[in-house]
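Re-run with default settings, no changes from the original entry. Doing this only to confirm the output is reproducible before filing.
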Amino acid sequence: MSADRGDADHFDGDSSLDPRNSAIIPETGNVTNFALSKRVSSALQFSPPSHEPELEFERGEPQAIDDEISSRNRIDDLIGDMRTGVSRGIESFENLLREEYRVFHRKLAAEKAAFEHYKQKMKEVNQIQQSKVHLNVGGVKYTVALSTLTKEREGFLSAMFSGLYKLTVDEDGSYFIDRDGNHFSMILTYLRDGIIDPRAQNDPIQREYLEREAQYFQLTGLLNLLNGGAPFSSGDGHEVHYSSFFDMSIDPKVHSLEGHEQAVKCLQFQGDTLVTGAYDRTLKIWSISRGALIRTVQTEAVWCLQFAGSDRLCTGHGDNCIRVWDTTTWTCIRVLKGHSATVMCLQCEGNIVCSGSWDNTLRLWNLDNAPGEELVTTFTGHTKAIWCLQFKDNIVVSGSEDKTVRVWDMKTGLCIRVLQGHTGIIRCVQIQGHMLYSGGDDKTIKEWDLEQGFCARTLHHHSKTVRCLQIRDRVMASGSYDCTIKLWDTVTGRCMRTLTGHGGYVTSLQFRDGLLVSGSEDKTIRVWRFGSQRPNVTW
């Protein structure tokens, strides 16, 4: 014991030289280990008061040091294990992501391959199905290649089988077309070979039939072949032929009629008499041949008018009424009441009057009924104001602010078809054969097939609302809020001429022989005179 103490004393308190401390002298510069070595050195320099505590010190203090070292080693091992675990976890997660990506990529590739396979199969099926079309034309069955039917892109058949419209298929898989089946074979001759069928080359009756069918199916090329008149060039090398009444190769002579104090809203002529209605609450009666005002009749603001036979005129007004005038005396002989808002449009055929109103309804009247009992039917279905109508045979067509064209059964008053496609108010409609033309605020004119119920063509040229339409033969005139009148070929859909001169919205139009009459919000009426058949006028 003394030797131990002597050894301790011999180092003169320099515990750093004591070999008992060599195991814990810091060698790596670790601050914690250095602090621990200082504590051990301090403990070794302590002089106990008795032998028993000294033995306690020698046995207990190194054990505590060993325990602390072991504890630190375990902590280091634990940290190492944690680092290893984290590293392995990250690696495992990365591997999992890689595997998920590989699975997803394989699945996506498989789905893509399946889709491409299905697409190819459907393409093959469609090619087989579309390679031939079964038609039932007036009871006569035809099988025709789709490419033949769509050869003339602007024609009716091309539009019908363009894939843009839903067609009704009969039980035998054929598409029904309500035309003469025997004459249709001549149409196919043209579509297949580009020639006039031999049956129509020398037979004037067959030629007339073929021309009528060509007009129905809107086959411009065939009409050009059939028409032997002088050609008119549309400006793009396409030759178009027109009936003699309307020669667009001649610049029109224009005569202006002035007298209204506010916007002219409507007009119609019968014989030499032209009647115009305006917002100034007057009707004005003019002589076309002399270009002169004959009479002014005071009434309410006039929005629409039409002759009802040879001696009656019906007018629609802002006071919700329809007035019937005796045209021999120009006195009002009857007032039809029933609408609850402005009467915007009407059409007369003999004793039958059909009217449309901003109250969203159409009304059918019979002028032969007793006063107060003229109303026959009310047509309801439009959800907003009605702006235009036309009827033919037993069909009534109306255009509305609700952006739809509705087709009605005149006898029952039921809506049998709704035509949708315009994106604005529909301001005007015109029926020509089985086709319907409509114009409106979306600046377009749409051509509809009334029998099949689809839009065959949309015409774009006006820069503002299309307000009015008139059709004579294959020439259509459109009046617009862009202050112009455009003349169209209804077969080709081409705009052939633009007439300018009005200083306000063009609100109304009517053809007669070589005349086109227009009314405008500039308070004037313009009479455009052109055509090889000159009407009897002195101006």
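The longest strand covers residues 264-270. The radius of gyration is 48 Å.
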